[in-house]
Specification:
Length: 351
Amino acid sequence: MRRFTYETFAARVVFGAGCAQSSLAAEVERLGARRPLIVTTPRTAPLATTLAGPLPVAGLFDGVRPHVPVETVDQAVELAARTGADAVLSVGGGSTTGTAKAIALRTSLPIAAVPTTYAGSEVTPVWGTTEGARKTTGRSRLVVPKTVLYDPDLTATLPAAMTAASAMNAMAHCVEAFYAPGANPVTDLVAAEGVRTIADALPAVMARPDDAAGRAGLLYGAYLAGSAFGAAGSGLHHKICHVLGGAFGLPHAETHTVVLPYVAAFNAPAVPALRTRVAPALGSDDVARGLTSLAARIGVPVSLAQIGLAEDDLDTAVRLVLEKDFGDNPRPVGEPEVRGILTAALRGETV
Ligand code: NAD
């Protein structure tokens, strides 16, 4: 057994169809809170107010925006102070959870989170805000929600494209957890189960969006993915996706789906668990082929060209990716390696 350090971010997790409706009031009470501030988006605001029902909430902040702009956090913190909120009730996807975390970082208010996508942020200590084009991220125990209510019924309204993209983003967290800096035997265990659960459930949900067992599987997989990512961290794959999203405006989750098989294929020779644990969890004898075959079954983009990257962007993309530090990647990463991965992903070449 290799020597390892495993830091857990223990939260209380309540999982089950209908639990957001039946258990929310009791969970908020467990936090010792009497007046939570609801944080959500305009689209999920009706759901959030229905769930809060008879709770004596302090107010509703539905100004969540992607990438958590600091001005939205300023507004929410001001509303929390003005209304005497004593907790944050977050109902929504990763952007909503991210906003709740940024509020908690400034106010120390406890968070009860009701995730409605497969982002997994609700079980990680990672927070991020943006100011103009500048993104600031960090880790803090203060931002980890104290209680998370996973209710698969709430994800039934996720459109197909978002379902696929969000679930493949969770898959990327699981795969990358095997070689991220904090990888350890426990995160391996959690991530392998996440891969298996997502790979089993996703095709069923894409065929039938209201497949209750499939929706529950995906949400459970998202929880496992967030847990593995929160403890293990991320690596080469996320760094590449970060550049492609930031510099070329490529859609976050679709970028993950396309890039993942190429990075997995690149790292596989140095990470035996990708072959011995991840590939079988995908029902394949090869991790990259298992991922591309899953992508093909659910009909998502398979090349960066399909989601907006041009051949002419390649040199800039390679240069920007190389500005990152890859010292902790299991294989050395230089110009030829980055160019190889990006070229293959751009063209959707067979892995
Ligand atoms: P999102 O939260 O931005 O939501 C996208 C859209 O989907 C919004 O309009 C939202 O209202 C809508 N939506 C949410 N749930 C819905 C539902 N059930 N039915 C219908 N519509 C719904 O998207 P996301 O993919 O959940 O989150 C992405 C963000 O999360 C990224 O910014 C990413 O960086 C962040 N993230 C952070 C962590 C972390 O640990 N900090 C982890 C994963 C992702």
